[in-house]
Specification:
GO molecular function, one term: RNA methyltransferase activity
Shape: globular
Helix content: 40-55%
Family: Belongs to the class I-like SAM-binding methyltransferase superfamily. RsmB/NOP family.
Keywords: Methyltransferase, RNA-binding, S-adenosyl-L-methionine, Transferase
CATH architecture of the largest domain: 3-Layer(aba) Sandwich
Largest sheet: 8 strands, mixed
InterPro entries: MeTrfase_RsmB-F_NOP2_cat, MeTrfase_RsmB-F_NOP2_dom, NusB-like_sf, NusB_RsmB_TIM44, RCMT, RsmB/NOL1/NOP2-like_CS, SAM-dependent_MTases_sf
CATH superfamily of the largest domain: Vaccinia Virus protein VP39
Active site: 405
Length: 467
């Protein structure tokens, strides 16, 4: 934003409306557990913010939430009492001010004064002195200077340094490092700079990726609407400058949708795997909200997709995604770990299991601070049960795609190895040939996509064949 922007002029008595909206959204996320993207989209509509105001508000919200842990480390050096003793709404306001001072092109004097005005409006006059003093301390150093002051030494504790410098919890950085090091010497990801590349990519906002429903729309239609073809997916396109996907007719009519390219690639891989004999009955075992279901239903041809989702409201989302697609496809509300169909009923099964979501941190800025290692541990039994059910549900000779939107080793290969270790009727196959043209897929046989290598969410796929 230009330094001549109205936001860098002397603050008015009333708080800046965009900052008010941003602060209120941040409070919904931190205090009420709201999802940032959903809360922000609603707030922008309600406040009728568009153009530069909407972009400014989006960066205030997403940036503050993304860098929250790092900013807390800086604030801990700038506040005279423990951060835990601060009222949560005051801490959120300080984080919002810190983001403007260290990571946005906002004049420091204007940023501090705007935040003091916002404090007076939202929290009362008595909080303004503390906000003014703390943010002026923050403004005395640049982001790099604060990192050099607070972070562990990079040579003695590279994981700790990267965690603070790139705004990821340490346990997440450690998990990513383990995943990147798989098949290589321990510490290779750190030494080569690959781990840092991943963390940097994780802090870049994800592009708006679109997918056509094969047979209903073409990529050319999306291109005519202002998108550019995706790099890897034959059915994908990207809105490079962002904007509302609904303005493209194919998206508005359900003949195309919004879906990360990584999600497209794992669904296409399952549909492309060789299957001998019948190939008319496909199953999506964990279907909500239905993006992969819609792509699979478009690819099954004259066959039928059965989509299973335990939550009724998410099952309705699946139905909405399938509505425009011809065929007698089914949506069942039920528990995928307790099949209501006979064993071996399906030719292909997608098990896109619930996971920590650590592979989608670009688009869910709050998730990195909301998730904990306990979440990974608690999800493991469900992931194993769903994969076990998926293998039982596929016929001999059929294939299962075990998919997670997480690169955490305990949610990916460890789950596959644990389940296959208990069974003698299924085996892991090399999935890499199912991603034609996509580079850097590792040593296999499973596939891990990465933001820094592929520009996608960190989707994982293991291809399993029932014997």
């Amino acid at each position: 934003m230009s330094d001549r922007s109205p936001r860098n002029r002397a603050p008015q008595v009333r708080p800046d409306r965009v900052r008010v909206v941003a602060f209120q959204v941040i409070r919904q996320v931190t205090a009420e557990g709201a999802y940032a993207n959903l809360a922000l989209n609603k707030a922008l509509r309600d406040a009728r913010l568009s153009g530069r105001d909407a972009a400014f508000c989006t960066e205030l919200v997403h940036g503050t939430l993304r860098w929250q842990g790092t900013y807390d480390a800086f604030l801990a050096r700038s506040v005279s009492r423990p951060l835990a003793d601060l009222d949560p709404e005051l801490l959120d306001l300080l984080r919002l001010g810190t983001h403007q001072l260290l990571n946005m092109r906002v004049d420091s004097y204007a940023a501090v004064n705007e935040m003091v005005t916002l404090t007076r409006s939202e929290l009362g006059q008595k909080r303004t002195g503390l906000v003014n003093a703390v943010l002026r301390k923050i403004s005395q150093r640049s982001l790099d200077q604060w990192i050099a002051t607070v972070a562990p030494a990079a040579d003695s504790d590279p994981i700790g340094y990267l965690a603070l410098a790139e705004a990821h919890p340490r346990w997440v950085v450690e998990a990513f490092n383990r995943a990147l090091d798989r098949g290589a010497a321990a510490g290779q990801a750190v030494a080569s700079g690959v781990l840092e590349q991943l963390l940097v990519a994780d802090n870049e906002p994800a592009r708006v990726s679109l997918v056509v429903r094969p047979g209903l729309a073409t990529v050319d239609e999306l291109v005519a609407g202002g998108a550019t073809p995706a790099r890897w997916s034959p059915y994908g396109a990207v809105l490079e400058g962002g904007g509302d996907p609904g303005r493209i007719e194919a998206v508005a009519t359900g003949r195309a949708g919004v879906q990360d390219e990584g999600s497209q690639l794992v669904a296409i891989a399952l549909a492309s795997a060789k299957v001998d004999g019948d190939d008319a009955n496909w199953l999506d075992l964990c279907a909500g909200p239905g993006g992969k279901s819609a792509l699979l239903a478009s690819l099954v041809g004259d066959g039928q997709l059965t989509a299973v989702e335990p939550l009724k409201h998410r099952a309705e989302l699946v139905r909405a995604n399938l509505r425009a697609i011809p065929g007698n496809h089914k949506v069942l509300v039920g528990d995928g770990t307790k099949p209501t169909w006979p064993a071996g009923s399906f030719d292909r099964v997608l098990a896109d299991v619930p996971c920590s979501g650590l592979g989608a941190l670009r688009r869910r800025p709050e998730a990195r601070w909301r998730r904990t290692p306990t979440d990974v541990v608690e999800l493991r039994p469900l992931q194993e049960a769903l994969l076990d059910s998926a293998i039982t549900s596929v016929r001999p000779g059929g294939v299962v795609a075990y998919v997670t939107c997480s690169p955490h080793p305990d949610e990916t290969r460890a789950v596959v190895d644990a389940v296959l270790g208990r069974r003698d009727d299924a085996s892991l196959e090399d999935a890499r040939p199912l991603f034609p043209g996509v580079p850097d897929l590792g040593d296999g046989p499973d596939v891990q996509l990465w933001p820094h290598l592929h520009g996608t969410d960190a989707m994982y796929l293991a291809l399993i064949r029932r014997s």
